[in-house]
Amino acid sequence: MLADVKKLEDAGKRLAPDAVELLLSVDKEGVVRALLENPVPIISADAVLAAIAEEGKIPQPVEVKRASGFAPISKEHSPRLRVIERQDISGKSRCTGTIEDFVEHFQDRFKRVGKMLKNRISANPVVETERLKENQGKGVRLICMVAERRDTKKGDLLLTVEDGKGTAKVFVSKREKCFLAAKGIADDEIIAVDGKYADPFLIASEITWPDLPVVRERKHAEEDLAVAYISDLHIGSRHFLEKEFANFLSWLNGKWGDATLAGKVKYVEIGGDIVDGIGVYPSQEKDLVIKDIYKQYEMFDELIVNLPDYVEVIVSPGNHDAVRRADPQPIIPMELMKADVKKVGSPSLVEIEGLKHLIYHGTSLDSVIAGIPGLSYNRPEEAMLALLKRRHLSPLYGDNLIVPEKQDVMVIEEEPDVLHMGHVHKNGHLNYRGTVVLNSGTFQARTEYQERMGHIPTPGKAYVMELKSGNLNMVDFGEPGQG
Fold first, then answer.
1. Which of 341, 350, 263 shows the shortest CA–CA distance to 301?
2. What is the DSSP code string of 151-185?
3. Same domain, residue pair 191 and 303
4. Which of 60, 234, 249, 287 could cysteine-pair with 444, CB 3.0–4.6 Å?
């Protein structure tokens, strides 16, 4: 692999270190020839990029044609798609970042999540912190936000909680049945604690999260249509999987893989990180083959136009996209993404064929995996389930940036039929109390950062759900298909 570098050096060319790294990462046939013809004696990374572009190595629009015998049933149906606006912050952000904004934000969160907890069955009456002493020795339920948790020297758990009326101490003995569940309590989340008050502690006997109702059937659509779930394309990155994404486009046109399943796809849902962005992390430039944010989105527009015209595309932003970094995120601006797609914010609630899809990029998964014992990047669906049980998409305050809007749209007020996230580049799914929980993986190859962190992504794979039967299929676009 170093032979081409040596050829340039023998010709009297000097290569900058980042130029060497970039040159070794691409197919160099024709690129070295262009660099040899370049009269400049010092070859920079920009010169290599220019040579790569001349040889067509930068991802180019993929032209796909529909197979002549392809008769997709989804073409015969009009779309049934509705954005439920109250979950989407786009065009409605009024936060100025004052203390009052934060107070109203957390009061709104506590009120709405607390209402869910009040509907959870308990033999004890709900009391507020200011009335605990009146109920000395009696069984009570306290709905509260966790201000602090710590382990005692004897291995028990001590919580400091608050409810807007005051604070209280909750003691969870390691001998109680609820202790194992209580180990998963994190700061800032809202829970219900059942127990007896023995001044100065509420001695816990049961911990309850807002959660989904236990008795809840999974919903199915009337028509035999399907949704393809993808995310984290990272267009513009040198790790973008152009071939696998081209296979995805060809598949939807009936020219690759299972044409029967492809013919059912009426909707494509993209859960953020459409492009790799600019300046998202230090020294990102060396990982980019397209260094202009407008051209990155232009590339997406050129690719997505190859989808069949009867397929509806729903696009939500992620932390690499050109919107504000903090949650909740508004839609990607029209001047950047010009493709004919349905743009929504993150999070957003979209009804597809009667099924409610809660779409959120999943930036908070980093803090949740770090903050709740037992969770890992290898099983993102379990971290997503932790959010679903807490009925909040970012329950741990501090690590994941939030904008304190007066109404906290990160609260999962309505029970979703599908919860779709991305961000962690790892496919995973489970079914829980009538909700399909899925993480749609990525179309970006494993990066050096992921290697250092030990993250093992599952690139080039997508979930496809048949809405009538409820079947969830995994399609691997890195595998050979029939074209």
1. 341
2. E-TTS-EEEEEE-SS-EEEEEE-TTSTTHHHHTT-
3. no
4. 234
At 103, give phi and psi (nearest 5°): -60, -50
pLDDT tens for 421-457 read: 999 999 999 999 999 999 999 999 988 888 887 889 9
As a whole number of angstroms, the distance between CA 192 and CA 145 comes to 9
Angstrom distance (rounded) from CA 162 to CA 164: 6
Token pair, residue 8, equals: 């340039």
Residue 178 in tokens: 């609820």
What tens digit of pLDDT does each residue of 251-280 get? Answer: 999 999 889 999 999 999 999 999 999 988
Establish if 232 belongs to a structural domain.
yes
Q: What are phi and psi of 283, to 5 degrees?
A: 60, 30
Say yes or no: 160 and 247 in one domain.
no
Cα-based angle 424, 306, 299 (whole degrees, multiple of 5): 60
What's phi and psi for 220, nearest 5 deg?
-130, 150
Cβ partners under 8 Å of residue 65, min gap 6: 253, 255
User: Are residues 40 and 80 part of one domain?
Assistant: no
Looking at the structure, tell me whether residues 170 and 195 fall in a common domain.
yes
Of 208, 242, 265, the domain-final residue: 208
- Residue at a domain's end among 174, 208, 242: 208
Give residues with Cβ within 8 angstroms of 414, minimum separation 6.
84, 87, 349, 356, 358
**CATH number of residue 148's parent domain:** 2.40.50.140
Q: Which domain holds residue 235?
A: 73-92+222-476
Asked, for residue 331, whether it belongs to a domain, the answer is yes
Place of tokens 């609820």: 178
Q: How confident is the model over 155-199, as pLDDT tens digits?
A: 999 999 999 899 999 999 999 999 999 999 999 999 999 999 999
Q: Is 20 helix (H, G, I), strand (E, B) or coil?
A: helix
Q: What is the DSSP string of 223-250?
A: S--EEEEE----BTBTTB-HHHHHHHHH
pLDDT of residue 121: 87
- Claim to verify: residue 409 and residue 293 sit in the same structural domain: yes
147 and 199, same domain (yes or no): yes
The CATH number given to whatever domain includes residue 356 is: 3.60.21.50
The structural domain count of the chain equals: 3
Nearest to 230 by CA among 211, 245, 250, 220: 245
- Structure tokens belonging to residue 52: 């790569």
CA–CA separation, 135 vs 198, rounded Å? 9
**The predicted structure's pLDDT at residue 33:** 74
CA 418 – CA 116 distance, rounded (Å) = 20
- How far apart CA 360 and CA 345 sit, in angstroms, is 8
How far apart are the C-alpha atoms of 327 and 316, rounded to whole Å?
12
User: How confident is residue 481, by pLDDT bands cut at 50, 70 and 90?
Assistant: low
